[in-house]
Design a protein that fits this description.
Elements lengths: L6 H7 L5 H21 L2 H22 L6 H15 L8 H9 L2 H9 L1
Helix pairs in contact: 2-3, 2-5, 2-6, 3-4
Length: 113
């Protein structure tokens, strides 16, 4: 992942978004990964996972000094482990989707303001 797939976001636009917005966007990639995985389309699943990991990395960079990074760095590990690793953590695609879906309420609340 040396070259960004989300070049405009990596250039600073991502840092301007709220944490809820960032997490909902990452959740969209996780949703895509889950759908492709269920269909057996491993290449498409892996591509969605790489995009999600890139967005998580951009979120970590954007949140330095604002929030604790422990949860975000552990989340990166969970996503990488479930989709690309040996699945040593007790999480699966449904758990990850629920995690990201929990940010939808805050995202919608922000949009209503």
């Amino acid at each position: 992942m040396s070259e960004y797939q989300h070049k405009d976001l990596a250039a600073g636009k991502w840092a301007e978004l709220s944490l809820a917005t960032q997490m909902v966007n990452i959740g969209s990639e996780i949703s895509r990964a889950n759908r492709w995985k269920a269909k057996g389309a491993q290449d498409h699943c892996v591509n969605a996972v790489y995009r999600a990991l890139e967005l998580i990395s951009l979120t970590i960079d954007a949140q330095i000094g604002k929030h604790s990074l422990t949860e975000l760095t552990r989340l990166y590990e969970f996503v990488a482990d479930y989709y690309l690793g040996d699945q040593i953590y007790p999480v699966d695609g449904a758990w990850l989707q629920r995690y990201f879906d929990s940010f939808i309420y805050q995202y919608l609340k922000e949009k209503a303001l």
